[in-house]
Design goal:
The chain has about 850 residues and is of the alpha/beta class. Helix content is about 60%, strand content about 10%. The chain has 39 helices and 17 strands. The strands form four sheets. It has a seven-stranded mixed beta sheet with strand order 2-3-1-4-7-9-8. Helix 29 runs antiparallel to helix 30 and helix 35 crosses helix 39. The protein is globular, with a radius of gyration of 30 Å. The protein starts with a helix and ends with a helix.
């Protein structure tokens, strides 16, 4: 969007404030007013805006249809122009949305270049007619007086969240920004592809399964991500990205999607009637899972799927969209943008379009070539690349684009130093990327060499400290690793490194640790690869060792189904009575219990108990006695549950494990509670609470406060129940455990349900829990029974209309918002 006449009038440079405007509902307005009246209104709107811009120092950079792009040398000038424009339009039929953003754009021969232009346009697009939105960078120059803080929003350019302010206090609908999404933040802005983007968005209106196809490096993922962002408003329950490149097991596809959404009870059950879009990225590795997508669509009528794959899925209802190379103009834009990112002073020459044509305007090939402009001019790139392309292109029968891309990657590789080539190949051993520490340990990586690979676009950086490769490049690197003769050695070092990580994590995940859960989640693909390599190498004892170490992570991190499958498969592969087998059995019992399979949990825990006893491991035996105890409670065998709890407690004390002894004491008190002996349970809980607090055992402290709140409620001590409930909720929030927070919210809802005037709050809390239940993963039978009673009480106290309204409000709450609501109500 650049007007050549404006460019000739000395665009403001340095720190510049951009103002974008757009007419709301122009098509609808045209139908309402008729062509002549609409044309007159539009002309008057243009006159008013241009007068306001000119009066406050604005330079009109571009106008397209009913949209303006204006630059100001100062932020106050832009704001004053926006105010004047709103005042001038106040009595007319046209309503305009505006976005204001300040940055330091590059000024080239054709106008402004850089992300700040896109950012300003996106901010404007997120608003509504009559609304002026202001970015944080502009607000920092203006001050926030007279501005309303709308919080952080992710915009459709997929960049990092932006804090946005609104001019004035007027109420508007929610911003048209991304919400309920895990779409990644790309390292670079989306360039070109306007036509393809419009086509994909159009196809998504009707197709429930749309597959973007093409060879690696053609930009399928980036186009898919941008299309998903553009259509976000169609899907009230969000848009979610499911990356499949690191996977090789087709059975993990739906489980990986479930994890992206926080589903615990199966993906189809989680989705049900939700309206959302799933983007399955890099499906070609796991195409055997394609029939599962058809089944998903059949059972979830409001779900749409967008897939990127090098090949069609060939399932009923699939709409194909072959992703073409970039149009020549877009290819040039992309190359220039990436070249300026590598060398800000880069000036495009006539050789650039020729270079892009030689590279068939393939996005990845353009990026690799652009990374070289630090040392080679476009003319030199054309000369050298042309020779390599002619030399390296594959034979007949291969997609020409794939030939070009492979030749470009190979050319980039051959320009590396020997050390760079060695590290490039070695890094391919990682699945899903790696930290610097892992690269140093497994690959003997040198930081300078690693940074050089990043500079050359062969390695990328995500989240500040995670290094990874595009799958197309990684495949080439794997070939180089195989040729080097180091593959077996690197795979072994990789497996040993992640076995060590699992062992280090195991004692840290016995008590809930959000930090460790997140760390293992980042490395899950590497952990899977390590398990697969150890299994393929016949190292069954080490497979059991690693799988057993990961069992708490799988349980707390929402991977119960995968964890159970991994553990039970490993247990079949090695049946010697070792410590590793005993620990894996303990983990398998936990997985079965977490799956709701109480019978299997009792059976497996029984085997684990026998083995731990045979090995003389009192502590391991105590863990399994605890699983047997809670399973017995679920099955109603309360007398045996009490005996098992007492034995578990005695063994933890014998082992000298104070933390687990305190936790086991809480389980014993729960057996008293389950048997109806409230006073005995209360007395033991209170003494155990003091012990947990004295020793700093936060998890048991939080859980015990919740148990005491339940007992107080059941005994009719409502004031005590409220006070204990608040302490419990605060403790769970500080701990960060979603399960603990969810149970606390349910207890609070039960208490509020019987209090006059609090029924509405109770309904909202319970509704939030139900909406978020799959993400939380709470499946204990006692929670379900408690919630059934709470729901019955609420329905008896609220009429149908009030209940429906409160329930709908609760579904829209996030967990954090529900916690805030409960705490406010507990005051």
């Amino acid at each position: 969007m650049h007007d050549h006449e404006a460019v000739g009038r000395a665009l403001p440079s340095g720190t510049v404030t951009f103002l974008f405007t757009d007419v709301e509902g122009s098509t609808k307005l045209l139908h309402e007013l008729g062509e002549a009246a609409y044309a007159a209104a539009l002309a008057e709107h243009r006159r008013i805006l241009r007068e306001a811009f000119g009066a406050h120092g604005g330079l009109e950079v571009d106008t397209q249809g009913d949209a303006f792009f204006v630059a100001f040398a100062t932020a106050p000038g832009a704001l004053a122009a926006a105010v004047a424009a709103l005042d001038g339009l106040a009595t007319g039929s046209i309503r305009v949305r505006m976005g204001v953003h300040t940055g330091t754009p590059h000024v080239g021969d054709e106008g402004y270049v850089g992300v700040d232009v896109h950012r300003a346009a996106r901010i404007a697009a997120a608003g509504h007619g009559g609304q002026v939105l202001i970015s944080a960078s502009t607000a920092a120059l203006l001050g926030t007086d007279g501005l309303l803080d709308l919080g952080e929003h992710r915009l459709k350019d997929l960049s990092a969240p932006e804090r946005i302010y609104q001019l004035g206090e007027e109420d508007f609908p929610p911003l048209k920004s991304l919400y309920r999404t895990n779409l990644p933040i790309p390292a670079t802005p989306f360039v070109g592809r306007d036509h393809e983007l419009a086509e994909v968005c159009g196809l998504l209106e009707d197709a429930r399964l749309l597959t973007l196809t093409g060879p690696g490096g053609t930009g399928k993922t980036r186009l898919g991500l941008q299309a998903a962002a553009e259509v976000a408003e169609r899907y009230v329950d969000g848009i979610f990205w499911v990356p499949l490149a690191p996977l090789r097991d087709s059975e993990l596809v739906l489980a990986t999607a479930g994890q992206a959404l926080g589903a615990k009870d199966g993906l189809a059950e989680h989705l049900a009637d939700k309206s959302l879009l799933l983007l399955f990225d890099n499906f070609e590795h796991v195409v055997e899972a394609a029939p599962g997508l058809s089944e998903l669509l059949a059972s979830c009528p409001n779900v749409h799927l967008l897939v990127t794959s090098r090949e069609l899925l060939r399932v009923p209802g699939e709409q194909a969209y072959p992703v073409p190379p970039l149009e020549p103009e877009d290819g040039t834009k992309l190359f220039v943008a990436r070249a300026r990112a590598a060398r800000p002073s880069f000036v495009a020459s006539d050789a650039v379009p020729e270079l892009c044509a030689r590279l068939e305007n393939l996005p990845l090939a353009l990026e690799l070539a652009a990374a070289r402009v630090r040392v080679l001019s476009p003319e030199q790139l054309v000369e050298r690349l042309s020779q390599r392309l002619d030399l390296l292109k594959a034979g007949r029968g291969v997609d020409p684009r794939q030939q070009t891309l492979r030749a470009t990657i190979e050319w980039s590789h051959e320009l590396l130093t020997e050390d760079e080539q060695r590290l490039f190949a070695r890094l391919s051993v990682f699945a899903g990327g790696c930290t610097l520490e892992s690269a140093e340990t497994v690959c003997d990586a040198d930081l300078d060499t690693l940074e050089s690979l990043v500079d050359k676009s062969l390695v990328r950086v995500r989240e500040g400290d995670r290094f990874w490769m595009l799958e197309t490049i990684r495949e080439y690197a794997v070939e180089r690793l195989e040729e080097s003769g180091e593959a077996e050695m690197l795979q072994r070092r990789h497996a040993e490194h992640f076995l060590e990580l699992g062992e280090e994590a195991e004692p840290n995940t016995r008590v809930y640790s959000g930090e460790w859960i997140r760390r293992l989640e980042q490395e899950h693909d590497n952990l899977r690869t390590a398990l697969d390599h150890l299994a393929a190498s016949g190292e069954n004892e080490l497979v059991l060792q690693l799988a057993g170490a990961l069992s708490e992570f799988w349980h707390e991190g929402g991977h119960v189904a995968e964890g159970r499958r991994r553990l039970e498969g490993a247990l079949q592969g090695q049946e010697r009575p070792t410590a590793a087998r005993a620990r894996a059995l303990t983990g398998a019992a936990l997985m079965a219990y977490g799956s709701g399979d109480v019978g299997s949990a009792r059976s497996i825990a029984g085997q684990a108990l026998e083995l731990h006893r045979g090995l003389g491991d009192a502590r391991g035996a105590a863990f399994n006695l605890n699983v047997l105890c809670v399973a017995a409670i679920e099955e109603g065998d309360l007398e045996q549950a009490e005996q098992l709890a007492e034995e578990s407690l005695a063994l933890f004390r014998q082992a000298g494990d104070e933390r687990e002894a305190v936790a086991a004491t809480r389980t014993l008190a729960f057996t008293y509670h389950s048997r109806g002996d409230h006073e005995r349970a209360r007395t033991l809980h209170e003494s155990n609470l003091a012990q947990a607090q004295a020793l700093g055992f936060k998890e048991t402290e939080a859980g015990t406060l919740g148990s005491l709140a339940m007992i107080a409620f059941e005994q009719g001590r409502i004031e005590d129940a409220l006070a204990l409930g608040k302490q419990n909720l605060l403790a769970c929030r500080d701990l960060g455990s979603l399960q603990g927070i969810a149970q606390s919210l349910c207890r609070s809802a039960g208490t509020f349900a019987v209090l006059p005037g609090k029924e509405n709050t109770a309904a909202r809390l319970l509704s939030c829990f139900e909406a978020q239940r799959e993400q939380i993963g709470v499946s204990e039978a006692w929670v379900a029974r408690m919630n059934e009673q709470t729901l019955s009480t609420i329905r008896a106290r609220l009429d149908e209309s009030a209940f429906a309204e409160a329930w709908e409000q609760g579904r829209a709450l996030t967990i954090d918002e529900a916690v805030a609501l409960a705490l406010d109500s507990l005051e």
